[in-house]
Amino acid sequence: MSKSKNPLSDEKNRAPATMLVHGGTQRSQFKETSEAIFMNSGYSYPSSQYAEDLFLNKINKPAHNYSRFANPTMDMFQDRMALLEGAEAARAFATGMSAVTNAVMSQVRAGDHIVAARALFGGCRYVVEDLMPRFGVNSTLVDGRDPANFERAMQPNTKVIFIETPTNPTLELVDIAAVAKIAKAHGAKLIVDNVFATALFQKPLQLGADLVTYSATKHIDGQGRALGGIVLGSKALIEGDVHTLLRQTGPSLSPFNAWVLLKGLETLPIRVRQMTESAAKVAEFLADHPKIDRISYPFHPSHPQYELAKRQMANGSTLVAFEVKGGREAAFTLSDSLAVILISNNLGDAKSLITHPGTTTHARFTEEVRLESGITPGLLRLSVGLEDADDLIRDLEYGLSQV
After folding, report:
1. N or C: which end of the chain has fewer CB within 10 A?
2. What is the spatial distance between Cα 310 and Cα 240, in angstroms, rounded to a whole number?
3. What is the spatial distance between Cα 403 and Cα 399, in angstroms, rounded to a whole number?
């Protein structure tokens, strides 16, 4: 009787938590249990002919020619993330912003046009609004909450639609499936920054997106140790323009950081689930507090796009935005009174972090642009960490008592 193959031998048949422990692992001849760190910059070749074939992409087995292009440790991180995302391929970058910049720039040429949601992280909006026009690629920014605004902004030369959802810092949502249909109807590529939702709670590729970007610094590392970024999508897009731009411009991820990020992926589901559970409790507390004007949390019923959140996200994730009565002074007083929650512009960390977007992440914008994006003087963005949820609520309660 022949022995049947274990279905779990195929990594794609495994649950996300299992993928994130074992996915994409390549072991050396020593059969180490923890992934090896290949800290080399170059590689030797058995012959000159092999070297020529390698540079001409004629080698049909895993091989490397320079760590600016690829590296075994980076490969493992990319393959593991691709399994989680359900993507055909991925490329890792030195930072999240280098990943976003590559994703956008690799898909356009001089004379093209980009449509983007106006609610974007400051660095992302800079790429679309300020950087790309220098290279002859103009952009139109729209209110992303209504998909019809994307349709109205499309032009014959529109090649990319770029969105974040939920948005940074206001946690607005964009209907990914609806915008994907618009992009495809016009022959454009949809790029989604999925940092806030994480790959655990939102699957942009399944909803019709072409490329997905992450700052791996955030939840993927999630412990304040390493910078990194990644772009995921079809094999054609990733191994084509995305890889070419990465190879020729060099924003490569360090092999050591790739290893740190691999370790982060092993605990990603446990950390993000706990942080999300706490974020929901914190949102509930803030929603009922008399010194809070409004909160924004995708899975709280008060969110104006609550039904969309339930439709395209599996959970509300780890960020809460809220507006303190009394504007900037009250927001500063609250933040400065906290003992457990740290003031920092990072997010997705094991430690809870609070920031005042108007004077940090979006400080370079005019007040008009900030208000247009919902960034009021009293707005604070809270990234909920792994501390006890009751301690976080007590910390916020004390801070609010000082306002």
Report:
1. N
2. 35
3. 7
CB 207 within 8 A of CB 85: no
What lies within 8 Å, CB to CB, of 245 at 6+ separation is 102, 105, 106
Q: CA-based Rg of the chain, rounded to a whole angstrom? A: 22
HSE at residue 373, side-chain half, CA atoms within 13 A, is 29
Dihedral sign for Cα 101, 166, 351, 35, please: negative
Q: Dump pLDDT digits (tens) for 32-75.
A: 999 999 999 999 999 999 999 998 989 888 888 899 988 999 99
Q: How many angstroms separate the CA atoms of 204 and 86, rounded?
A: 10
Cis peptide before 166 (omega within 30 of 0): yes
CB–CB of 338/395 below 8 Å?
Answer: yes
Q: Model-level pTM greater than 0.85?
A: yes
What is the spatial distance between Cα 101 and Cα 123, in angstroms, rounded to a whole number? 9
| Contact call for residues 107 and 190 (beta carbons, < 8 A) | no
Backbone angles phi, psi at 128, to 5 degrees: -75, -45
Cα 287 to Cα 296: distance, rounded to the nearest angstrom = 9
Peptide bond into 169 cis (omega under 30): yes
- Average pLDDT of the chain to the nearest whole number: 96
* CB-based burial label for 148 (10 Å; 0-12, 13-18, 19+): exposed
**Any idea which residue has 């927001």 for tokens?**
331
Amino acid type, 174: V
Report whether 24 contacts 84 (CB < 8 A): no
Q: Which residues, including other chains, have CB under 8 Å from residue 16's CB and lie 6 or more apart?
A: 84, 200, 269
Q: Which two tokens stand for residue 40?
A: 């080399």
Map residue 114 onto helix, strand or coil: strand
Map tokens 């208000």 to a residue.
371
Predicted confidence (pLDDT) per residue in 262-271, tens digit: 999 999 999 9
List, for residues 286-323, the tens digit of each pLDDT value.
Answer: 999 999 999 999 999 999 999 999 999 999 999 999 99
Angle, CA of 127, 87 and 156, to the nearest 5°: 45
50 vs 69: CA distance, rounded Å: 17
